Amino acid sequence: MSTKASRTAARLMLAPAVILLLGWMLVPLSMTLIFSFQRYLPMRGGFQDWVGFENYVRFVTSSAFWPSVQTTLVIVGSVLLITVALGVLLAILLDQPMWGQGIVRILVIAPFFVMPTVSALVWKNMFMDPVNGLFAHLWRFFGAQPALFLSEAATPSIILIVSWQWLPFATLILLTAIQSLDSEQLEAAEMDGASPLARFWFITLPHLSRAITIVILIQTIFLLAVFAEIFVTTQGAFGTRTLTYLIYQRVLESQNVGLGSAGGVYAIILANILALFLMRIVGKNLDR
Q1: What membrane topology does this protein have (predicted)?
Q2: pTM of the model
Q3: pLDDT-derived band of residue 83, with 50, 70 and 90 as boundaries?
């Protein structure tokens, strides 16, 4: 049984770690907020003036702001839909007894360990190149003109690349969840005459709801910051400029750290709105 002295000692021992974590989080956030109210040009003399909310107004009234928010939401939503749907399917398939099951699982999970820059280069040069890419050869084999994926279908191409990277993560989490499903429930339902689709819909899918929620929550946090895939393949052209990439461009073009910081604050607000929405879903699922 813990005493008052032991609880005090525990708090004192935890205090350095808590203070370090708070500093780790609050210092960059505070600096971003301070810079966002300044005209700060490091390459042209540094701090020049306090401008109040001018950077915020300038950033949000830019013609590229709302399209970038829309592109961000389209990429995040599409990747989540693809990875969760295919992740459930792959998790069910990988849970079935098969020869070489361990090797197959490693091959399915392997893309998750490829760095985003490398995977973007592989897809750009080996698959989507209109001259020497694998898809171009397939198109010509069937007598069709090779498609210009990264210009004519740039956003779907980015979604495909990012989905390929994150599908193994969703599959791994869902496979772990599906292995904890009591097989006696499925056997009892089968003996009662339930079809495979009914067993999936009324037993398997509800069992995976918590895992799906966790996958959506974690992936959303990282997908909001997708950058390398866009930088390597399209450099923000053809409607692929997300909010993260717009902030990078604004800082690079104007060399105004204050303007980029204001964009960063908007990105934090967007991420928190999505996080609050998702946390409500997580809370409901975890309470069941």
Answers
A1: Multi-pass membrane protein
A2: 0.83
A3: very high
